[in-house]
Each structure stands twice: as structure tokens, then as C-alpha cells.
Amino acid sequence: MLSDLLAPLSAEHQIFNLFNYITFRTGGAILTALLISLILGAPFINWLKQRQSEGQPIRDDGPETHFVKKGTPTMGGLLILCSLVISSLLWVPLRNPYLWPVLTIIITFGSIGLVDDWMKLNRNTSKGLSGKRKLIIQLIICIFVSMVFIELSPDELRYSVALPFFKEQILPLGLFYILFSSFVIIGASHSVNLTDGLDGLATVPVMIVASCFVLFSYLSGNINFASYLQISYIPGVGDLATLCGALIGASLGFLWFNAPPAKVFMGDTGSLALGGALGAISVATRHEFVLAIAGGLFVVETISVVLQVACFRLFGKRIFLMAPLHHHFEKKGWAEPTIVIRFWIISVVLALISLSTLKLR
Fold first, then answer.
1. Could you tell me the pTM of the whole model?
2. All structural domains of the chain with their residue ranges
């Protein structure tokens, strides 16, 4: 919005020309979202505590160390959503067609998570909205958003996936691409949700992946850089770098309160929205496979759950002491900060590998 209002004034006042630059707007989005989170954080958490006497329900079969967290309020994702959406609307040009479908995913997925968190609190149980209902609602939303992205895409990319490590190679999927892109968005959403089990464990990797997509969005939306790097040029997606900046700032502000020992949990309200945002941005930029690399930590956490459930149902045995994977290491006696920091390190390494796809072609 600010660029829509102030950039036209650059003809009279040179300083307003800054609002024409994505890099400046991205920095502004980071700082704005961070400040909103820090300012609203303490009163918002106090408000949650007044309405959540028991705090987030703790799983009875979970690690014993988690019972000390009893009484910690959840739905902290509302703080992330508030700062993310406000900052995005301020710094991303409202005329950009990619802004609205991505915000649709963020807001609707966050709303689904909010209902899920509310049901858990109301029933005082770790079980909320049924998985089938979540998936059906998310699938309907994702099909609609995927069709919007298809209409916005260049003709050669409308129903195709770009392949990393190959020079301008695309894989045509036809109408199946609608289901593929929906799977990416929903999968990313639930992967972040599964990873969000320890203080700060999901928040920092989300910021790391978002940082990667600041670069991928900017380069994909710039015809000169896209041509030089031999990646697909998609007009308009460069402004999603600014939205990624808002996501980083919002997450950074939330981490101030979520750092061990956490004063608030993001809950499904935050994790579903953040994962959905990363998935949607990867689809918009046609870097879905890059998301799987940069967000490899989320992928591994999800695979650990799938393998655990499949093995138990087929053979009556468990592969891990507990799934997702971070709980396995808790059961082995690793301290929570040790697990979190080591998983952050892994996330950084995976992010660097994903960035290498820009040149290794």
C-alpha cells in the first residue's frame, strides 16, 4: 500500500523513489512485522492467559519433560498472523496479483488452526478438528488458489513444474498439476505443524526457508537475473520477497516470546498458516522442489511420522521411540535445547544446498 501511495511522489521528491525498490520494501516489511510483534506480544499473551486457565493441553503419551509446560497459553499464531498480514498489506503493492492468493492461504489456514486450537482448549484434550475435515477444507481452498496461480503463470509454465539443477527444464503435468500444487501447500502446512513440538523448533527453520524464498522470489521476478541464472521468469512474483520479509519479521518477533522457556505456543493457528504460506510461495515461484530441499527438516519430520504409523499398522512394531523425530531424541535423553539447536543447524545446511540450485545447472 505504501508503494502505491508514495512511489508516484518520486517525481517531485527523490526520497520516495525508495518505495519502487523491492529490497527497500522487504527491509521495511521485516522491521514493521517485528515491531508489531514486540509491541503487541506482552499484552496479547496476558490476554490469552486470562482466557486459557489450563493453557495448551499436553499429550498424556508425550515426553515427561513436557508436563512442566502445562499452563502455557496457545494460539500465539494470532500474533504472527496479525503482524504478517498488516506488514504485507503495508509494504507489498496492493495491485500485485500474487499477494491475494498467498494471503488467502495464510488467513484461511490460520483460521482452520484457530478452530482446531479452540476445540482442544474447550475439550481440554490434545485432539481438535478431525484430520479429514482439515484436509477437505484445505483441499478446496488449495484447488482454487492453484487455479489462480495457473492463470497468472506464463504460458509455458501454466501446468508445469520447474526442475532444480537443470537449465530451464520443466516437467509438464497437465491438469494433474492442480493436485500436485495443492499437495505441496497442504503438505508444507502439516509438515510445519508436525515440527512445532519444541520451543522455537519450527519458528527458526520457517525463517530460514522464508529467507531462501526472499531470494528465489526476487530473482524469479527479475527478467535479467532469471535469464542469467537460467531459471523461469515469472512477472510479478518479485514482490513476494517482501511478503517473505514480513513473514521473517513476524516469526522473529514471536520467537522473542517463544524462546525457551516459552511464554506462548503458536499452536495450529500459526504452524498451519506459516507452512501454508511457504507452500503457496513455492508454487507461485515454481520452486516446489526447492522447498522440499530448503524445508528438508520438515520433510524428515513428516516422513518419520508416516514410517512410524505404517510400520506399527503393518508389523505391530515402532521404528522410533516416539514420532515425530524430535520426540525420538527426547526419549533418548537429549536435552530440548540440544535438539532444537542441532535441528536449526541442519536447516541452515539444507537452505545452503537449496541456494546452490541457482548455479549448479
1. 0.93
2. 2-286
